[in-house]
Amino acid sequence: MALKRHHKIMIGSLSSILVIILIINTIFIYILYAQLQINQDKLENEIIELQVDTQSKINELTTSIIQTRESLGELDESLNIELGELKASVGDDFSGIAKNAVQSVVTIRTNTGQGTGFIISNQGYIVTNAHVLVGASKINAITYEQNTINANFIGFDGTFDIALLQIPGDYKTLKLADSDKVQIGEKVIAIGNPLGLQFSISQGIVSGVHRTGINEIDAYIQTDAALNPGNSGGPLINKQGEVIGINNFKVGGGESLGFALESNYIKDTVNTISQQVLNQTLIQ
User: Do 254 and 189 sit in the same domain of this protein?
Assistant: First the structure.
């Protein structure tokens, strides 16, 4: 049966509507897809920017951690040094320095008396006071291990009361400090054999520097560390375990008035003796 005219119009209208709906849906879907694509691109860009920013912050944090570790390492090293010096500067904590230093100290015993000396070279060269050897025909050095060894007389300097001896063997040595850097008030220890009491240690402070000695030369450190007969020729040692002077004399009638020849004068005098007698420099 043939469609009537109004039926055809209706069907045509419906078809047109469907086509329009399809076109509109297509356009909507395209717009939606385009918007989604834009949002996706924007999100990806934000993610990339975030990753770059995060990586930059991670790099900054890593650099900061490295710098912090280096700073802590320097601080730790500095603290260790300061703590070491602090420990060495108070009470019993000087014992570690004394324990090491005393092994390089010897008792000087002659047929006329005794004193102290200390080893400055692993070849067994010993520094002491020249007056300890006055009138002696035989010189023995008694080491910390209580070995008695015949000592060879090398030479002396009467102006600074310095004598140089040598014993055979290999020994621990004491290093001379720069006495120009000695500070008034710094703590020191004196090692010697007062009244025959071997390897005795007394503690004090530096009371003055560049004091005038019996030789009228401003070359002496004044200390309140106890010095007695037998201490002559022994070392005066700072908190670094270095020799800043050789204990030389004390003022009679006064308390805590000991004097030690400054280490720079010891060095020059010993080298003068060794160059004249041995044709070599012992102390660099």
Answer: yes
